[in-house]
Design goal:
globular, Flavoprotein-like_sf, FMN_Rdtase-like_dom, Flavodoxin family protein, alpha/beta, binds flavin mononucleotide, 200 residues
């Protein structure tokens, strides 16, 4: 007698983000859409003034995607306040073995965004989380390439976006939005395979 194949539970992805002026929020929503398209239950958690309900959503997630604008070459002050407050989880190893990933947005093409993504990886490692990288080759790096390529800014650690300093949230580059969607799909797909709760 054959038993039906187990249907894995939908993975739960939480996006812990800050956005001072709404640009990074557009990317958070794109990560959400990508993860949802891959079958995840997704929660957007604005970490600026995070509530008990927000903390509970993060605690219950299989994967937490960190997102922040790059301010002065690192994550924003509000994100750092949140990161320091995660120390309570760190003491109890509450996030051990969850998946983690990250995205950032800034005004310059580079703007030292790599440092923000690296900061997220260290935060994740301190919590014993497993980092999910972007998983894309760099775009826009050949004579035949286009600025509309996925991963047009060529990051490997996570999704990097650039928004012109004189444009509002509607100016977030469509290729960067698509790259953030890709990250959401990748995190949800990885959670289906590896996250303890999703595989249970
Ligand atoms: C205090 C401050 C510091 C900034 N530092 C950087 C930086 O280091 N590199 C950069 O490229 N852009 C920098 N910017 C520009 C922001 O990253 C950019 O405006 C971004 O789109 C803001 O995203 P948000 O609307 O989600 O806050 C800075 C902006 C502010 C307000």
């Amino acid at each position: 007698m054959t038993t039906p194949a187990a249907t894995p539970a939908a993975p739960v992805v939480a996006i812990a983000y800050h956005s001072g002026f709404g640009h990074t929020a557009v990317l958070a929503e794109a990560v959400r859409d990508g993860a949802a398209a891959e079958g995840a239950a997704v929660h957007l958690v604005d970490v600026d003034g995070i509530t008990d309900e927000g903390w509970a959503l993060l605690d219950a997630a299989d994967a937490i995607v960190f997102g922040s604008p790059t301010y002065m070459g690192t994550a924003s002050g509000a994100f750092h306040v949140f990161a320091e407050a995660t120390s309570k989880r760190w003491y109890g190893r509450a996030w051990q073995d969850k998946l983690a990933a990250g995205f950032t947005n800034s005004g310059s093409k580079s703007g030292d965004k790599l440092h923000t993504l690296q900061y997220f990886t260290v935060l994740a490692a301190q919590h014993g989380m497993h980092w999910v990288n972007l998983g894309l080759l760099p775009g826009w790096n050949a004579s035949t390439a286009s600025e509309n390529d996925l991963n047009r800014l060529g990051f490997f650690l996570g999704a990097g976006a650039q928004t012109n300093s004189d444009e509002g949230p509607e100016g977030v580059h469509k290729a960067d939005v698509a790259t953030a969607e890709h990250l959401g799909r990748r995190v949800a797909g990885t959670a289906k395979r590896y996250a303890p709760a999703a595989a249970a």
